[in-house]
Amino acid sequence: MGMLESGLRRAKRRLQDGWMSRKLDPIARQVQERRLTYLPTAKLLSLTNQIDRLNRDGVAGDFYEFGIALGGSSIIMASKMDANRTEERRYHGFDVFGTIPPPSAQDENDSHDRYAVIAAGKSQGIGGDDYYGYVDDLYGRVVRSFEDFGLSVDGDRISLHKGLFEDTLSLPPDARIALAHIDCDWYEPVKFCLERIADHMAEQGVIVVDDFNDYQGCRKATCAFLENDPRFLLEAERPHALLIRRAETGR
Ligand SMILES: C[S@@+](CC[C@H](N)C(=O)[O-])C[C@H]1O[C@@H](n2cnc3c(N)ncnc32)[C@H](O)[C@@H]1O
Question: Domains along the chain?
Fold first, then answer.
């Protein structure tokens, strides 16, 4: 693709994004303006639509998120989780709060090339900010961002679990999840999260897989999961994958 053409495409995408951002609710717009999320407007709109649906339809269960970075999508999920509801939800967020762990042999060049830039200390942050993976005390910074939005990370209603998902995720047998946002880029963590949460998903609950169209390893893990677990329906592929837990037929 020529430089002029790719520049035009980028400009068109920015225009479309700016136009769509008028549809965002106030919290999501503030998160975007403060450059706290990597999610483009279309993904923010889809995520908030899913939260509104779960609240409106009374789908019970907590919100889980794998991949927090600066905390943008987390703040949106935690802010909106109890809108118009009597039954309280809890938010659980998981992240290393440091540099992202490397991809594996199951990932393709797209992931390995991206990781090489990060590992070389050459990654740029959102809008030219410092890249979150190089920030000292990222955990403390995310907690302060939650507080800026009036949210207390109290370890009860809102919990942030620091470390590898593989070490920090423990689900009691009765855990019920209405929404899981899986935003951790590579094959292995996506596979791990999907397989660990599957039995805990509420009927009509949703798993949002952020990187389905962004990294081939993520898509491969998601497609393999869907092939093996017929309880889940791939309801949408764009702007991210929406995996809906089907209702039991009562056979
Ligand atoms: C793309 S960022 C999340 C973006 C965020 N949801 C937002 O709104 O901008 C991915 C995050 O997942 C984390 N991550 C990836 N694999 C992980 C693992 N195995 N354990 C813990 N954290 C992991 C990375 O460190 C990074 O912070």
Answer: 3-245 (3.40.50.150)
